[in-house]
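Data availability (excerpt). The following record was deposited with the supplementary files.
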Amino acid sequence: MKDVRLLYASTVAEDFDPADLDDILQTARTRNAAEGISGVLFFNTSHFIQCIEGSRKAINSLYNDMQTDPRHHDLVIMSYRDIEQRMFSGWEMAYIQPGEISEEILESHSMPPGFNPATIDEDMANAMLVLLLQHLEK
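Predicted structure:
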């Protein structure tokens, strides 16, 4: 059975506490390890973009749970597809902090400044994934 890759973006809740990020990452890494999910999370203080890969059942279950998480809202699926190979197989949940990827780098890959998910199409989202992967491999 093939794995799937889900790429989504969401808006950070107004009452989001940066300390919540540690809980998100710890919970994700524990659950993802148990469920065979890999992925990466990018956070820029106002939005999340996350790519998760795994079995269709595990990804669908995780995404359903994420929709009820009060720490973010306005979830937008940017891409959901069958995959032949995982991009983030080495990470239960890699994390890219704000500022690790500069606005100049994002703009050089045709990513709009400020990262607003409403302005990104699937091609841009895939470019973002490649950029995140390159950053992680450094």
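Summary of structural features: The longest helix spans residues 20-35.
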